[in-house]
Amino acid sequence: MKRLLIASIFFLLPATAFAVPTKPEQFLKLENELSLECQKYGAESCAARFISMAACTYVFAVNQGKHPDEAMDIADKLFVGIMRGNKIKPEIMFTEKGNIKPVITNEVAERTAFCKEATEKAVPKLFAARGMEKPSDEIQERLTNSFGYWWISTIETIYKKGKGL
């Protein structure tokens, strides 16, 4: 129950109150203590939840002043650790063509909506970090609303490059 509470609190805290892990011992603690009942929910649903946690951690880190590259490293470490801690093999997430399964994609899109406000705040910071001018309100809204799908596409790209697809 304690572990489920930790996972629930993760999405209930405002972005400014969420402490983004940065130290190796913090990642190790999350790996060892953040476990879901994946036998109950299914490995694919757990993977979707963990992808969403990583995606939201990314925007939280950007909003806390981390460079996008550092924020990505933090999100990646979190994802790898909690997947490993819950004994979920990343391969279960992908189709034969190297795309993330639609059921996972849909759940990630729904779950990343929980950090929509943080994503909206992060978009201009991401543009600024890359030396670009602030996006228009329309572009910002589109990017915010499609964030979960963008996150999925980055995972697919990395997976396909590693598999030679």
Structure description:
This protein is an all-alpha fold and 165 residues long. It has one domain (21-156). It has nine helices and no strands. It has helices at 2-12, 24-33, 38-41, 43-63, 68-85, 102-112, 116-129, 137-145, 147-163. Residues 1-17 have low confidence and may be disordered.
What does this entry show, briefly?
The protein has helices at residues 2-12, 24-33, 38-41, 43-63, 68-85, 102-112, 116-129, 137-145, 147-163. The chain has 165 residues and is mainly α.
For the CA atoms, what is the radius of gyration? 15 Å
Give the helix tally. Answer: 9
- Care to count the β-strands? 0
What percentage of residues falls in helices of 4 or more residues? 55-70%
Please outline the major beta sheet. Answer: none
Let me know the average pLDDT.
87
The run of helices and strands is HHHHHHHHH
Which band does the percent of strand residues land in?
A: under 5%
Total number of domains: 1
Query: Which residue ranges are poorly predicted, with pLDDT under 50 across at least 5 consecutive positions?
Result: 1-17
Class derived from helix and strand content? mainly alpha
Distance between the termini: 41 Å
Instruction: Name the shape in a single word.
Output: globular
Map the helices and strands:
Elements: H1 2-12, H2 24-33, H3 38-41, H4 43-63, H5 68-85, H6 102-112, H7 116-129, H8 137-145, H9 147-163
Helix pairs in contact: 2-5, 4-5, 4-6, 4-7, 6-9, 7-8
Q: Keyphrases for this structure?
A:
165 residues, mainly alpha, 70% helix, disordered N terminus
